[in-house]
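Components:
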Amino acid sequence: MSRLIYPVGVRILQSAAVGGHEEKNGPLGHLLELHDEDDRFGADTWEKAEGKMAALALSMLLAKAKLKSSDIDLLFAGDLQNQCVATAYGLLPFGIPYAGLYGACSTATEGLMLAAMALADRQIDRVGVVTCSHNCAAERQFRLPLEYGGQRTPTAQWTATAAGAFLIGREEGHASCGVGISAVMAGRMVDGGVKDGANMGAAMAPAAAESILTFLAERKKEPSDYDAIITGDLGEEGSRQLLRLLEENGLSLGERHKDCGCLLYDREKQDVHAGASGCGCSAAVLSCLFLPALSCGKMKRVLFLSTGALMSPGSLQQGNSILGIAPVVELEHAGML
Amino acid sequence: MSRLIYPVGVRILQSAAVGGHEEKNGPLGHLLELHDEDDRFGADTWEKAEGKMAALALSMLLAKAKLKSSDIDLLFAGDLQNQCVATAYGLLPFGIPYAGLYGACSTATEGLMLAAMALADRQIDRVGVVTCSHNCAAERQFRLPLEYGGQRTPTAQWTATAAGAFLIGREEGHASCGVGISAVMAGRMVDGGVKDGANMGAAMAPAAAESILTFLAERKKEPSDYDAIITGDLGEEGSRQLLRLLEENGLSLGERHKDCGCLLYDREKQDVHAGASGCGCSAAVLSCLFLPALSCGKMKRVLFLSTGALMSPGSLQQGNSILGIAPVVELEHAGML
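Structure:
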């Protein structure tokens, strides 16, 4: 049985991206719909700020789509905070029927995949997907409180303060609108043996390689059939590992490979080490860079796979290695967003 | 638009439940397929033990269904540990395409709902759902280390050391087999204002009430159309609140209401205060008590709604109240498991 599922007539109809100070200062900053200069989004803790940012992304999505929250039938959301409380508290006020996800930084793609599947039998019309991450909340939960001023290693990535929101529906009434989701594939957990919590890219690269190899084989496609094969947040180190793993399997992506973690910041000017990470990274970059390119036809077809590192500080302390996972969505030009 | 979705021909084809020492000693203990007397399941930490228990539940499910792990197309799973690492590490060895969920103690129902939706367009055949909780892992993560010997309040519940696994498929080839999933409804997050981490039942009751009232109204059914309306883990206190909230809305459930949290232990003989809780509670009770009753026709139709408390120790410390959520599945007698 194939791992691929082919949604029929399912499209990303609209999206929105919100970021923080560092993201605004990066090369994609001018493409964010909203940002907050002090990363607080009006909240008194970093954790609450993350939820407020997720809410802003969803509000902006609804505004762009000219919809009310009651027009959304189901909302998939998740984040990196313990028990996913950023999205839960942040999205509570919308009152939309809710299904929480945990896919670590792969949540954006996991949500798009499940949204496409949920729309398949035509009983619901519109599904929302929201995900977010906040650098300061992540630092103190996964690593060290900011006040400690710890040194970061060269392979460490910078958890993005960013949120992305997506509206997924069917093409009826949107004949030349949006970006088609033409195929989806759930990820498989892969244990590459990496135990270094400051090298998530290397931990996730084997899962990304497995997903790309499986997807292309089952879809009977070559990399040249795609304008880009886009990973979520492998960063510089993980991207290098991915290309090496693929080349060992006879697959060369070359310039066709893009990584959202390498695109969000200017690593020459911004002190982010190996690049960006976090649930919000791939969501924001998809929303503000790749969806517009697919929508206007500058890109015709891409593979998009957010990459997740399944681990906790406790699991690392207990000697476990970091598991990677990389669900895939194939996106195609359908019309203008 | 209705919040209800009607899966066609989707059934729970098999299930399995595993528990610990306390669960084995409870009134449903003889119905568990497997248990471990010292709650360790061969692991050297409670956190790893929880993952091993989830793996045992899935192994038992596959054995009962006479399937290999490669026969399962997609696995929904989740637990209460930070970043859901119990199910991630526990289920890694099976290599099944994976979608992580976070619905707190509502995960079993969330998973059944999404499985039914995923099967709708007939591109995949079999979906697994696994969820678990472990008392000792939960105590030290959410409350206090066991060694501290803290006093518990009367409204506190006992996180069950239990795991449940379910196989969901379509009826083809299983004409008189299993339990039908005839309708599903995603939950809405409800903030009842409860900030007491030792009274989860009260925090979840408003969400359960909202789900039951909405489901019955949209389905145009009365409580008398069901043999039972089953909540996940409201416990004694939460169940009382639920019945009161429903009566305020003109709905009387009476004896028709069952709560898995009140059924798993004998509160006269076991020191569990207000009853059981945890992702594994409703999953295990559904598997070992209600699915067999539905399968043999002793029960014809039930509503099943696991109840989740969306919160973290950090969100409580920051002054947030506890959000409740209660997705619903309507289950019907179809044939013998």
